[in-house]
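Case study 2.
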Amino acid sequence: MGAHNTNHLQSKADQTVRISKSVFVSNFPEGCTAKDIWKVCNDYGIVVDVFIPNKKSKVGKRFAFVRFIKVINLDRLIENLNTIWIGQFHLFANPVHFERPKKQNLSPHNNAAAVSSYLRGVDQAKGQFQTGSYVNVVNGSSPVGVHGPFISSASVLVLDDSCVAERDMSNHVMGNVKDVSSISNLRTLIMEEGFS
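Prediction:
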């Protein structure tokens, strides 16, 4: 009877996944909970699930996945969700580009094989990485037997167009000083040289 119940529940979950549409939602306050997102989104459709991951987006904002059922027009739903304001935050909604992969049904026999192969990998990893340490990573040295991707020590900063500031620099002077103590009266020195 237990196996029949499990299959019945899995089929209900599969049916829900088939008839539902997921929406990616971002730009909401830090203190906002899944319940809050559920309430504001439920005005525009029937919400069946809200998931807020612990990690943040590339721009440092929190995001959520909201699953709706009985969606006739997904584009219209997203347009409506884009009109929502939570406090001073304007909600951004987009369709989910990639659905979550289905969970595999593991029988006890397959599960035992997976666990044993995992344990073999752990044993191999222990033997291979025992000499590695945090100091080796910081110094950039690789201990013997450790093979991994090379990580560049050079920092990279990627900025988009919103970070570009356009200013009139025709009246600006740039240079360097030999003595740090001359910085305090630099304006006076520049004025004496004829710059105003």
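The chain has a mean pLDDT of 74.
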